């Protein structure tokens, strides 16, 4: 992961999670693509950064473009304002999702009085 992408993952716990079958979830790949394209990047570079095959990346970019989360201009892919809003929302929700995931897979009881801190954007 590039250094400029680390702002999405406020700490090590916020890195994209792989499920029990070690496959990445659709939403994690989508978030990685949007984060990678924030400053503008060529399709091939996205492919290498996110570790997808060319056909896989094409399907993701089609889906993201059709929902106006990313756009292509002169062979450069950029995350749109709508995509940036999605990244901000994801950053806010991720701690709650991760807490629930950990509880599910570890069978640990979650302290109901504990409050989670919402990560702040590095901007």
Percentage of residues assigned to helices: 40-55%
State the fourth-level CATH superfamily. Winged helix-like DNA-binding domain superfamily/Winged helix DNA-binding domain
| Global geometry | elongated
Written as H for each helix and E for each strand, in order along the chain, the element string is HHHEEH
Overall structural class, as computed from helix and strand content, comes to mainly alpha
Average predicted confidence as pLDDT: 80
CATH topology: Arc Repressor Mutant, subunit A
Low-confidence stretches: 1-14, 16-21
CATH architecture tag: Orthogonal Bundle
Which percent range describes the beta-strand content? 5-15%
In which order are the strands of the major sheet placed?
A: 1-2
How many structural domains can be distinguished in the coordinates? 1
- The tally of helices reads 4
Task: Indicate the CATH class.
Answer: Mainly Alpha
Tell me the major beta sheet.
2 strands, antiparallel
Radius of gyration from the alpha-carbon trace, in angstroms = 15 Å
Tell me what the structure shows.
With 123 residues, this protein is mostly helical. A hairpin with a 2-residue loop joins β1 and β2. The radius of gyration is 15 Å and the shape is elongated.
Write the layout of secondary structure elements.
Elements: H1 26-36, H2 43-50, H3 54-66, E1 70-73, E2 76-79, H4 81-106
Antiparallel strand pairs: 1-2
Structural key phrases:
single chain; 123 residues; mainly alpha; Arc Repressor Mutant, subunit A; 47% helix
